[in-house]
Amino acid sequence: MTNKRFKVRGLVMRNYIGSTIVSFLLFAVMIVMFGFDLEDEIFDYQVRHAAEQFIDNEHPLSEASGTARFLEMQYFIGTEGMPDWMAEQIDPGWVDRNAEIFAEEKGHFHVSIRSLPDGQRFYMLFNARAYIRSTESIKSYLVIIGVLAGVVFLVSLFFVYKMTRKVSAPLEIMASELAAKDKVSPEFQLPEQAPVELHALAAAIGERDKRIQDLMERERQFNRDASHELRTPLAVAVGAAEVLEGTYDSTPAFKRLKAAIRDMQQLTEGILWLGRDPGRAQHCNISSVCCDSIKAYRHLVDGRDVVISFKGGDDILMPVPEPVAHVMVGNILRNALSYTDSGEVSVSVGANGVEIQDAGVGFGKLAPGREGFGVGLALVERLCAHFGVDFSVAGRVQGGTKASLGWSKKAEAI
Predict the structure, then answer these.
(1) Does the pLDDT value for residue 391 go beyond 90?
(2) Are 122 and 64 in contact (CB under 8 A)?
(3) CB–CB of 51/94 below 8 Å?
(4) Strand, coil or helix: what is 108?
(5) Residues 47, 126: contact at Cβ < 8 Å?
(6) Which of 52-56, 59-63, 158-162, 346-350 has the highest mean pLDDT?
């Protein structure tokens, strides 16, 4: 389940509208409750006052029931003279208090119960149904309040929209500037009326970007300096090896020397390419690179029962420079041969990738003392990220390791 994402403006507007609707409903409920409660208080006061006045003026009462002069109220001494349906509604426990009786179609009664000196109970009943006005009044009042609330809501909504626009518009400008691939160091053109916090954020991003650019420039400068400093002694070493090749080329020590020099050359080239623009890179024949790497690292088998196989076409192009491809394939192949005691190491080249599998101990399953696949794979990961090549390495179910290099676009044939 994915979380929905909202723009700042939409988020504020939704919350404002929701809170306004909830507030209006709560206010309407309070108005309705207040109206009914106020009306009940008025009726209770009327019937209580009428009972007290009637008892004071008419006592001693000569009749057990009758009609009072107060808003056509009825009085009863005891419940014997009441209609049966009314007597059933009277609670014998009611003493010197007011109560309400809801008699459905017969009426809505407010009752005042008083104790007489002779111990009998006096009941003053008032049918308030004909005088209830709260429902219609509340409806009219709610209509008026609703209209006024709607006007206030629209006016406030306009100002909330303007406020959120002042926040969201600069954020959209900043996002657009940051997303522009043709701008290495964007300069935010924020409006003057944008919030101070957004100006501070834009300034902080600019300062951070400037520091990053300074670091990148120092790294590029280091790579340019290192390019000269590293290549010169390597060229001398290669020249010396070529002079000695006719005399010592068959000895194991000389073969290890040539392999070490070649590894240093590839490592140097790989590191130097990390500081260059990948957009200037050219394609290379990955099949030829794989065959050269197999030939160069075949000596790592060193008498073990390991077979190296190659499968693939002759015209497959990989979108990286040839020295970089040598570093990628060479490091993976060297790791595969170093950690395989017996079995097959296969190199397969397809239209969109290279796959190298071995029958060794498996990635992440090395015994103590043989941990780690070296700096080589870390360099491969960085080069792949730099040139946009997909790289994955994982253990196989049947044992061993599978490493893959992939690119999304099929290279053109040579």
Answers:
(1) yes
(2) no
(3) no
(4) strand
(5) yes
(6) 346-350
Answer for the pair 391, 380: CB distance below 8 angstroms, yes or no: yes
Choose among 338, 81, 44, 157: nearest CA to 90: 81
Please tell me the distance from the alpha carbon of residue 357 to that of residue 346, in angstroms, as a whole number. 5
Cβ–Cβ < 8 Å for 78, 64: yes
Nearest to 269 by CA among 228, 239, 227: 227
- Residue 115 main-chain phi, psi, to 5 deg: -90, 130
* Long-range contacts at 76-85 (CB < 8 A, ≥ 24 apart): 76/122, 76/123, 76/125, 77/116, 77/120, 77/121, 77/122, 77/123, 78/120, 78/121, 79/123, 82/123
Which residue, among 318, 328, 216, 229, has the nearest Cα to 270 in the 3D structure? 328
Q: Are strands 342-350 and 305-311 parallel, antiparallel or unpaired?
A: parallel
**What are the residues whose beta carbons fall under 8 Å from the beta carbon of 353, sequence distance 6 or more?**
390, 404, 405, 406, 407
Neighbours of 123 (CB within 10 A): 24
396 bridge partner residues: none
Q: Is 300 helix (H, G, I), strand (E, B) or coil?
A: helix
The pairs formed by 396-399 with CB atoms below 8 angstroms and a separation of 24 or more are 396/357, 396/362, 399/359, 399/360, 399/361, 399/362
Nearest Cα to Cα of residue 125 among 162, 83, 175, 180: 83
Provide the pLDDT for residue 139.
67
Q: What is the DSSP string of 148-217?
A: HHHHHHHHHHHHHHHHHHHHHHHHHHHHHHHH-TT-SS------TTS-HHHHHHHHHHHHHHHHHHHHHH
Rounded Cα distance between 269 and 276, Å, is 11
Using a cut of 0.85, tell me whether the model's pTM lies above it: no
Measured distance CA(211)–CA(299) in Å, rounded: 47
Q: Report the residue count for the chain.
A: 414
Q: What is the mean pLDDT of residues 321-328?
A: 88
How many other CB atoms are there within 10 angstroms of residue 48's CB atom? 19
The DSSP bridge partners found for residue 108 are 102
Closest CA to 330 of 282, 274, 264, 385: 264
